[in-house]
Amino acid sequence: MKKSLIAIASAMLLMTSYAYTQAEEKSEKVKPTCPVSGKDIDKTRIVSHNGGDVYFCCPNCPKAFKANTDKFAPKANHQLVLTGQAKQKACPFAGKPVNESKTTTVAGVEVGFCCGNCLAKANGAKGDKQLAMVFADKAFLKGYKVKKK
Asked: Is the pTM higher than 0.90?
């Protein structure tokens, strides 16, 4: 009996420790970076995009962003969310209300979707492809709202 109680207590401790570790990993904040270079941002180097301020690392990156905005828009929109300037308001694919049970983490941001199909679509992509699907201008404008300055 004593050995059973010790085994149960050990198992519970392991499960609690694992759950805590998983929650801690999910809560790690992703640091906003320059959408062009991926380097640390300088908040004095700013370009307005989708109603918010996108920050860059150096004087050359804003020029590159303006020259090819479509290419860098997903990372710029992602930065708007990371810096708290934009909040999710709807599913980025369908524009419908978010189902709280249909979420996934995309580049450190928890993103909600309206249904299992949209969630599966997002989960079917990884890395920059997933980031582009969720944060490209079309999806961003459907799913996010930038706070007024």
From this structure: no
| Relative orientation angle of helices 116-123 and 127-135, to the nearest 10 degrees | 140
Task: For the chain, report the end-to-end CA distance as a whole number of angstroms.
Answer: 65
Contact 145, 93 (CB under 8 A): no
3-state secondary structure 78-125: HHHHHCCCEEECCCCCCCCCCEEEEEEEECCEEEEECCHHHHHHHHCC
When pLDDT is cut at 50, 70 and 90, the band that residue 16 belongs to is very low
The helix (H) or strand (E) run that includes residue 130 is helix 127-135
Determine the pLDDT at residue 6: 55
Task: Spell out the domain ranges in the chain.
Answer: 42-146
Place of tokens 């962003």: 65
